C-alpha cells in the first residue's frame, strides 16, 4: 500500500468510526478508530523508512514521532487508539471512556497525518 493509500484509509476509517459509534456499535467503531490510527502511523513510518509490520513497531513509530516533534500528546493519543483496539474485541470501555478516547485518538490521527512529507 502506498503512503497516499494509508492516508486515505485512515481518513475513511475515521469517518466509519464516527458512523459506527453514532449507530451504537461500539465494537465496530472501536475497530475503525484503531484502524485509522494504525494506518496513519503506517503512512508516516513508510514515508520515513521505519518498520511498521507489527503492533510493537507501530507503537515504536508513534513514540519516535512524539520524540522527534517534542509532542508528548502523540504518545497518549496512540495509547488511546490502542485502547480502542482492545475494546473492539472485548467491549470493556464505558460510554465516557469512548467519548474522551474518541477525541484523543482522532486528534492523534489528524496530527500524524499532518506530519506527512
What does the model show?
Helix 1 (3-22) packs antiparallel against helix 2, helix 2 (26-48) packs parallel to helix 5 (95-114) and helix 4 (73-90) crosses helix 5 (95-114). This protein has 5 helices and no strands. Helices cover 82% and strands 0% of the residues. The protein is globular. The chain is mainly α.
Q: What's the gist of this structure?
A:
With 117 residues, this protein is mainly alpha-helical. The protein has five helices and no strands.
Assess the beta-strand content as a share of residues. Answer: under 5%
How many E strands?
Answer: 0
**Mean model confidence by pLDDT:** 95
Helix content: over 70%
Distance between the termini: 16 Å
Overall geometry comes to globular
* Secondary structure tally, helices: 5
pLDDT < 50 runs, ≥5 residues: none
Rg calc: 13 Å
Series of secondary-structure elements, N-terminal to C-terminal: HHHHH
Structural class: mainly alpha
Largest sheet: none
Amino acid at each position: 500500500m502506498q503512503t497516499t493509500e494509508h492516508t486515505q484509509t485512515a481518513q475513511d476509517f475515521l469517518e466509519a468510526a464516527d458512523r459506527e459509534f453514532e449507530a451504537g456499535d461500539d465494537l465496530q467503531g472501536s475497530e475503525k478508530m484503531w484502524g485509522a490510527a494504525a494506518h496513519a502511523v503506517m503512512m508516516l513510518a513508510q514515508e520515513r523508512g521505519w518498520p511498521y509490520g507489527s503492533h510493537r513497531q507501530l507503537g515504536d513509530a508513534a513514540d519516535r514521532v512524539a520524540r522527534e516533534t517534542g509532542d508528548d500528546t502523540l504518545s497518549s493519543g496512540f495509547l488511546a487508539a490502542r485502547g480502542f483496539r482492545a475494546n473492539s474485541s472485548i467491549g470493556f470501555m464505558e460510554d465516557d471512556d469512548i467519548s474522551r478516547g474518541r477525541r484523543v485518538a482522532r486528534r492523534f490521527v489528524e496530527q500524524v497525518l499532518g506530519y506527512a512529507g
